[in-house]
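Quick illustration for those who missed Monday's session on complexes.
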Amino acid sequence: MQDLSLLQSFELSEILSEEPDRCRLTLLGTLPSSGNTSTSEGHPLRAIIRIEKNAFASEHAASLFKDLIHKAKVMESTDIYTWLSGWTSSKASELKQPHGDVKINVICPATDVHVRKYTKQEIILVQETPELYRRIVEPYIASFPPERTRWVTEILAGRAEQGKVLYSSSAYIILPDMKWDLHTTSSLYLVAIARDHTLRSLRDLRGDEHLDLLKSIRQEAYRIVGDKWGIGRGGLRMWIHYQPSYYHFHVHIVNVNYELPGMGMAVGQAHLLEDVIALLAFNSNVYEVMTLTYGLGQQHGLYKPMKTVQGEIDEISPSQR
Ligand code: M7G
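Prediction with M7G bound:
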């Protein structure tokens, strides 16, 4: 089909597929017949149209960023993190839209840990026994300065993102995650943050102490997304990362149909809240005694120590293990 004027007469009837993670929309509709075929003459023809955004060209990265930032609006800013909505188009009509078509995240000043986290890298799978947790992971967590989670303290103390808080109690807070553009329901992404700062990760969860907290987060998350976005039970995927980037306990609350790129939803890394609740109900100390298997990027602070011990473990013959 060479005739662009025919394409301009596209009549949309249905959105077949919305894939925000791939920046892709697939549409069903009709196009007028070009009159070339005897069978279709006069009748509109059924047509599928797929629109996909191209990847950014890295060779123009600096000018691309400057151009985008020129038209961007700050969505939120907490501690060293700022996220903005930007417009790739310069058309006045599009600039008037309340939401841009790109999201820009800024971390400044960025630490080495941030640089390593965002560097593309190979991963290996490691097995963390309770003993390795105590010997390697706990000291690693303790080595982070308090500034690492200052964004959490700012939110919990009521000094940041307060206009966006969806739920707050003496035990936790629910608000939109920095990853969300705040309006695309198909990529809805919220985060529940516990107030108890001694609760660092999945490893610290105990059934007798934390089941009420986890069940309450599950209940309120369903209530909020049901009331506000019309998403019913079964429409949410809630998970806990191990290892997380930030060792202050939080739960990811995401539209179940959204496929997060990268490691965010990988097996081993993301533990379903439902499964965590079931396991803790079965055995209150399960995360104290369990061996946890997860992927670690080459740049991760735990990569070298865990790879070294993993090598030592692999050298022991199975009969000695
Ligand atoms: P994580 O499992 O520790 O690490 O999750 P990840 O970033 O590798 O997923 C922390 C979650 O908190 C992520 O989903 C972040 O996008 C989110 N997050 C991080 N920061 C710094 C902020 C922030 O300042 N505000 C909000 N609302 N969310 C944040």
